[in-house]
Amino acid sequence: MSYILETVDLTKRFGGLVAVDHVNIRVERNKLTLLIGPNGAGKTTLVNLCTGVKKPDDGRVYYNPSGREKIDITGWPSHMVYKAGFVRSFQIPQPFLALTVLENVLAAMSGSGEDPLSPVTRWKWIREEEERVERAYRILKLVGLDKVWNFEAFRLGAGQLKMLEVARALAANAKLIALDEPIGGTDPKYSHDIFSKLRDLLTKTDVTFLVIEHRIDIALPYADYVYVMDRGKVIAEGSPNEVVNNPRVIEVYIGE
Ligand SMILES: Nc1ncnc2c1ncn2[C@@H]1O[C@H](COP(=O)(O)OP(=O)(O)OP(=O)(O)O)[C@@H](O)[C@H]1O
Ligand SMILES: [Mg+2]
Question: How many CB atoms within 10 Å of residue 217?
Fold first, then answer.
């Protein structure tokens, strides 16, 4: 099987604390992999190490966007990881709240770089702009925001803003999207909405999700595979069913 992301013995120390301790995870392409664990388990740090936000002390990160070639991205700066299609939600600049939903998606696409006022490139530019708008609209449809395409972003609810983040990642050609607590601050109904939409995207596109989540009761049923971290280590992994019945996982969550 080819995995889109693999870590090998990934390790990060903060002084005497080993925040991420020889962690090995594998993220399957076009699936939703969930990373759970109590506060301070090392989830965010692990994703930071993978996306170049922080540098690991030890271990490797392999990324394979095409399925043909494993690239060693260990220690790459975050903008290079982003350009390679591995997008972490907060890496995308925050939505411009005064711009419309559609304009926000357009802003996340890379431009042609040509001067639209030059007579030679003018017509080409207009055609490219039309194609960009069409593509942005298709993305909005995929994430369920097409009906609100002309709303300013400040009018969106928390759940819709999360989907706007996903839309902007798709606009930036993301192959692997890491979401840190996507349902934080939303009520349970919206939380289920968000996860259903992520599942829907998996069937309609070839994108892959790596989702960090604290609220396992809501997130588990939507996952294909789950890693459970505690104190820097992976303490369990498997299908949602396997991990909820794992005594170590139960102990960690009840002991919180
Ligand atoms: N920059 C830093 N300097 C020092 N310690 C840090 C730093 N970042 C994280 N830590 C520590 O590393 C450990 C793991 O933190 P991390 O934020 O990765 O956990 P988490 O699983 O994401 O927790 P949460 O569910 O609260 O978001 C914690 O003990 C935290 O205090
Ligand atoms: Mg965290």
Answer: 11
Please check the confidence at residue 164 and state whether its pLDDT lies above 80.
Answer: yes
pLDDT in tens, 42-91: 999 999 999 999 999 999 999 999 999 999 999 999 999 999 999 998 65
The CATH label, of 3.10.20.880, 3.30.70.330, 3.40.50.300, 3.40.630.30, for the domain at 3-92+172-254 is 3.40.50.300
Confidence of residue 117 (pLDDT cuts 50, 70, 90): low
Helices (H) and strands (E) in the chain, counts: 9, 11
Q: Please say whether the beta carbons of 4 and 63 come within 8 A.
A: yes
Query: Which residue's alpha carbon is at the smallest distance from atom 1 of ligand 1?
Result: 14
**Bridge-partner residues for 18, per DSSP?**
13
Asked if residue 45 has its Cβ within 6 Å of ligand 1, the reply is yes
Instruction: Verify whether ligand 1 is closer than 6 Å to residue 42 (CB atom).
Output: yes
Would you kindly state where each structural domain of the chain is located, as residue ranges? Answer: 3-92+172-254, 95-166
pLDDT score of 222 more than 80: yes
Alpha carbon of 69 to those of 6, 182, 232: distances in Å?
13, 30, 29
Average pLDDT estimate for 83-111: 84
The two tokens of residue 174 are: 């993301």
C-beta of 39 in contact with ligand 1 (< 6 A): yes
* pTM > 0.85: yes or no: yes
CA contacts within 13 A on the Cβ side of 245:
5
Which ligand 1 atom sits nearest the alpha carbon of residue 41? 21
Q: Which ligand is in closest contact with the Cα of 179? A: 2
Please state the atom number of ligand 1 nearest to the C-alpha of residue 232.
14
